[in-house]
Structures are given as structure tokens and as C-alpha cells.
Amino acid sequence: MVRSGPPASSPTRGGTTPPVLHDCRVCGAESSVQNFLSFGPLPLGNAFIPPSEIPGEQEFPLDMGFCRRCYLVQVVDPVPTSALERVYRQYSYVPTGTTLARHYHDLAGEVLRVVRPEAGALFVDIGSNDGLLLTELRGQGPGIRIAGVEPSDKISEIARSRGVPTIHGFFDDPAADRLRTEFGAATVVSATQVFQHLRDPMGFLRRAMGLLTPNGVLVLEGRAYFPDVAAKVSFDTFYHELLFCFTLHSLRELLGRAGFSIFHAERTDAYGGSLRVYAQKVGGSRPTNPSVGELLAFERSAGVPEFETYREFGSRVKGVRDQLLGTVRRLKSGGHRLVAYGAPSTGNTLLNYCRLGKEYLEYIVDDNPLKQGLVAPGTHLPITDSRALTEHPPDYVLLVAWRLREEILEKLRPLRVRGLRGVIVPLPAPEVVG
What is the chain's percent helix, strand, coil content, to nearest 5? Predict the structure, then answer.
């Protein structure tokens, strides 16, 4: 295990940190960012690796801060670009399960209703993964054209095999030029669960602006919507690759500086709570929906513009962490066998911050075949398919992918007859579901 970067602002993996001020990496305000939560050194959340690569694994400090100028929650000291590029080239996540499939089906339908595209309109999805959203758009919007941009080697191949035109690479200037040359101007540029990961969000917006038609629409949807994070104490939302945590307050500031205005906004349940916005070029013809003002008012009532909201959240995190670790320790000391279900990137923050490794858990089950056979970052728990649950039935399952609680609980129901005693749901408050 190789630890990189400066020491964390707190020597232990505990909640709040002393006031440390930094310059905002997006709005540029000096000494405007104050730490509110430190996780200490953690591995990269998406760096699932084969067992042979464990000796070279790296850890980096993970501290979260809030900008008093533009209200943006951000990773204070991002890891080196080279480390993140390697992760995304080897990215192994694809949406699985009925919940996410239904979400992207519904999202496609809503985008088409809001935009009302003409025949031949081009829809470009950035970070298009296996093409799920684009496939839904094409299926529900006959006559439209689609194109995706995806940096992952494996997943871009999957998308192309499904008939989704996909540029393999990052959405940089050459990729934007290639899109305009090969496909023309876009009626819609979308990025779902992508924008919060970008090191240079202003560069992304500049390229999207140049790609869109004069009346084109930018659609952004991202998890880590802070009011939901706070309500669910979902500290596992944060990991190195997720560089920003947006609210409508912070997105309005950011998009306004890039020449966009938000005309519709809404909260969704996707990935434990996401924010979805539709934006147009400043001066566009689309009227602003009342949803924008309503959501801004909700955020003010939730304390989004106030640092105290974030400080209080940081102080709650440690208590929930200690409760979860105590629950797992009690079950393990009683002689019970425990395993985990779900290997999302967020799960590695949960497992490592709570120190839930091989001392307590035997393996992780995940339905994504691209992750099976690898080990989880930091804990090095082996990832396997669901057959392990019947071949080696556990007494308890820790539901790491707790955001898909109902769907996974239903999958685990048949194991009751094979001796499964309960499922540990870690957040918002640890509980054992019998």
C-alpha cells in the first residue's frame, strides 16, 4: 500500500477538522473554502484491481470543503490527474438492475418532452457509458440521431456493439471538434452522473456551448445533491473521483459564468438523490419554469448557503460511523459469518472509513461481471457473483449498495430458507433488517 500526497488535516479518520481555508478551484475566490469533513487517507473509489496489483495500490487524503462565495462543495486537494485518467480508462461500472433501467427510461422520456426535438435532431451524451440513455432516447424519439463520448476502453466497446455511435476518449477539444465534424451541431448535450467528476467544469461548459445549436439544451444530472446527502448522512457519497457536490445554488453560479441560464430544475431519487437541471444559452427563448425558484427556496430553508450546515453534517458522520462499526463487531463476535452486497465506488468510502475489511467480511457480491474477479480498493475484499450466497450462505449481509435497498432485499429474500438471519442496512442509520 502506497500513501500519496500530504498528510490529512486530521491524523485519524474522524469527523470534523480544524478550520483550514483554501482558494476555490472553480470561482477562484481566495481563502473562501473551509474544510468540514476529513476521511484521512483512502484509496481511489473506482480503482478496482486484480489481486496481483495490490502491492502498488495508492491512498490519498480526502478532505471536503465548502466555498462561502459560490456555495460549492469540493474535494480540497484532488489527486493527480494521471491517477484519475488511469481509473477512467479502466472504468468498470455499468448500470445494473431494474431500478436504474427504469430511471434512464423515464429520463429519456422527460428529456424528449421538455426539448420537443425535430426529426434529425442530434443528442450527444458525455460519459455515455454503455449507451443506455442514448438507446432509450433513440427508442422513444424516432428520427433523432445519437452520439456518445466515453473514456472507458471496455465500456465504449460495449456501446458500439449495441449500435451506439461512440467516440472513445474524454470530452476534450479534439473530441468536441470531431463531434461537430462528423455529426453537426447538437440539439441536446447531456451528462448524467458525470459533471461532478470533472476537474475542469468550465472547460466542459465551454465545449458544450460550442457544440449546441443556438436554441440547444444542456441537461445535467448528478448525484451527491447535498440536501439529500445531509438528510441521509450518506457520507459514502464522497470519494476522490467525485470532485464536486452540487446544489442548485452552486450550479446557478457556475453555469451563469459560462453563459448558460437554468430554465428547469428538479430532484430525483437516482443514486440516493440527484439534481437534474435543464439549461439554455443566456437569452434563449425557453421560459423559466417555477421549479427553479421553488428549489432555490427549498435550499435556502435547508441551509445550503450556510457553512454551519456542513459543519453540523461533519459532526454527525462520526457518530453514524461508530454505530455501524459497533453493529458489525457485535455480530462478528457472536460467531456469525458476514459478507457484503454491492461494490459501487461509494461503497469503498463506506468500507474503508469504517474499517470494515477482511476482519469482518468474507467477500462482496456484485452483479456487474466487469468487477467480478477483482478486489475492492483498500479492503481487498474479493468480488464475486451471487452464486457465492447459495454455495457459502452467510448469516448476515451488509448492504453496501444501500441506495438500491428494496431491489436487493427482494433478491436476498430466498436466502432466508438457507439460513440468512438478516441484512445490515448501513445508512441513514445502521439497522438490521430481519
Answer: 40, 25, 40
For the segment 292-318, what is each residue's pLDDT rounded down to a tens digit?
Answer: 999 999 999 999 999 999 999 999 999
154 by Cβ neighbours in 10 Å (0-12 / 13-18 / 19+) ranks as middle
Query: CA-CA distance, 152 to 129, in Å (whole number)?
Result: 8
- CATH number corresponding to 331-433: 3.40.50.720
* Cβ atoms of 341 and 369 closer than 8 Å: no
Q: Is the dihedral of CA 157, 160, 164, 169 positive or negative?
A: positive
CB atoms within 10 A of CB 420: 18
Amino acid type, 2 = V
Spatial separation of the C-alpha atoms in residues 412 and 422, rounded to whole Å: 10
382-408: pLDDT as tens digits? 999 999 999 888 999 999 999 989 999
What is the Cα–Cα distance from 425 to 193, expressed in whole angstroms? Answer: 24
Sign of CA dihedral 396, 397, 403, 407: negative
Residue with cell 421560459: 287
